[in-house]
Design brief:
The chain is an alpha+beta fold. It is built from 3 helices and 5 strands, in the order βαββββαα.
Length: 102
């Protein structure tokens, strides 16, 4: 297993950032059949998630505070081979969702 982390700054405040993350997750699930399974659960301001794609499980957390979202991914060894690309894709989607005015 390999851990990857990223911090995505924002100026939205905690509540708006969470709303946008939920919106992005809903669109992701509707538009892409990449995940054979996706489980998410908010515990206070931390989203816990687990996804299965191409037979590999990816899990992690996304903690939201007033000025940033902090992503921590746990990748199995096979997915870790593409860890940089996986992190880049997720981080890019989060930056897009958290950009712009509130």
């Amino acid at each position: 297993m390999r851990d990857l982390t990223a911090t995505i700054p924002h100026n939205l405040g905690r509540i708006e950032a969470r709303r946008r993350i939920d919106e992005e997750l809903a669109m992701l699930c509707q538009q892409h059949a990449v995940f054979s399974e996706l489980y998410t659960k908010w515990v206070q301001d931390t989203l816990h998630f687990e996804a299965t794609t191409f037979g590999q499980s990816i899990s992690g957390t996304l903690s939201v505070d007033d000025h940033a979202a902090h992503l921590a991914l746990v990748l199995p060894w096979l997915a870790a081979l593409m860890g940089g690309r996986i992190r880049q894709e997720i981080e890019g989607k989060l930056r897009l969702a958290l950009s712009g005015p509130s």
